[in-house]
Amino acid sequence: MLSSSSTTVKNLPLKRRLCFLLKLVCFVSSVLIFCEFLIYYVVIFQCRWPVVKGGAHKSEKETSASVLRAIILADTHLLGEIKGHWLDKLRREWQMERSFQTALWLLQPDIVFILGDVFDEGKWSSPQAWADDVRRFRKMFKYPVPTELVVIVGNHDIGFHYEMTTYKVNRFEKVFNFTSGKLITRKGINFVLVNSVAMEGDGCAVCSTSEAKLVALSHKLNCSQQKPNHSNKRCSDVEKLPASEPILLQHYPLYRKSDAECTGEDSAPPEEKNIPFKEKYDVLSQEASQKLLWWFQPRLILSGHTHSACEVLHEGKIPEISVPSFSWRNRNNPSFIMGSITPTDFSLQKCFLPFESRVFTIYCAAGALLVILVLAHVQLLTPPFYFAQRLISKHKAV
């Protein structure tokens, strides 16, 4: 009996240490699970699909059938083998994968558009590196059968105009089924895909082919809308398309002087807003911009490239939305656009992802608390309760 009691006393410190260690493991695991998994659900769950004007007069079934729900994001910049550190790649790709998969699960969009610069080193990657980048992209941005994914080409995917080759363009087109001047029509809504890198206007082979396709598509769309300046003779043999005014999807924004007029928490930093944009590098040239506006008279333009948000009105009536980068490598507060679109109207809403600074703050606070708990457990740090109790007992003794 005495031997059993002695064993229990000896084992008590060990059991306490194991219990404390288990509590620490649970604490650390909880912080990791929240910061690396649950936080994406908490943040994205707060996003709501915008309501299209006139939708309130229809039943929920009619609205869901006629409204196309689209997610638009840009500039994922998957790091390559040359400039991408393995730890940076691991962190950024995990963040984007969790955000994308969580958004698909919670929001269930009909279609997702990625507006270029999918890769960071597509402009110079070898065939093996390209295949590896594509494999990782498909893992990160996998999607269920009801959802459609459409990817637009950007300068980091095929290079700036002086780096662009037919080989790089064909390589991208083969993987993503993308061609400049391609029309995608869903629920009576026309989307025009533009290779904005090829809008150089210098007559290069890729540029000429791209512009020819855009001109032909413009003719079809204008004939379908029965524009008064098109005679029946010119449009008699043209394939009729839905009469909806098109939405342009491209990587480069149309020409604007700078981001000086852009506002919002995810617009460019104040020190960058007044830096003039360089034509054919930061934005399309004035000539190329006028061509696209004249050819299509779009009701909406969606672009990326600048990594910051901006809203611009062209010709006083055509809105262009520059979509910020989807990668935390480019900004602390990435976001994507949620669009409810019909053949005659649209409504857009921004959905922010978790702020990386807040995640870092949670980790720092958890780390500090962990250190305090460990020090208190090994009695290197007196817990506040015992410190106060000691002061009270001393006061009574006096």
Topology:
Elements: H1 2-44, H2 60-66, E1 68-73, H3 86-107, E2 111-115, H4 127-140, E3 148-152, H5 155-158, H6 166-176, E4 182-186, E5 189-193, H7 205-224, H8 232-235, E6 247-249, H9 270-273, H10 286-296, E7 300-303, E8 310-314, E9 318-322, E10 335-341, E11 346-352, H11 356-377, H12 384-397
Parallel strand pairs: 1-2, 2-3, 5-6, 6-7, 7-9
Antiparallel strand pairs: 1-10, 4-5, 8-9, 10-11
Family: Belongs to the metallophosphoesterase superfamily. MPPE1 family.
Main location: endoplasmic reticulum
GO molecular function: metal ion binding; phosphoric diester hydrolase activity
Give a verbal description of the structure:
This protein has helices at 2-44, 60-66, 86-107, 127-140, 155-158, 166-176, 205-224, 232-235, 270-273, 286-296, 356-377, 384-397; strands at residues 68-73, 111-115, 148-152, 182-186, 189-193, 247-249, 300-303, 310-314, 318-322, 335-341, 346-352. With 398 residues, it is of the alpha/beta class. The chain has a domain at 68-225 and 236-336: Metallo-dependent phosphatases (Purple Acid Phosphatase, chain A, domain 2, 4-Layer Sandwich). The strands form two sheets. The protein has a six-stranded mixed β-sheet, with helices on one face. Helix 4 (127-140) links the parallel strand 2 and strand 3. The protein starts with a helix and ends with a helix. The mean pLDDT is 89.
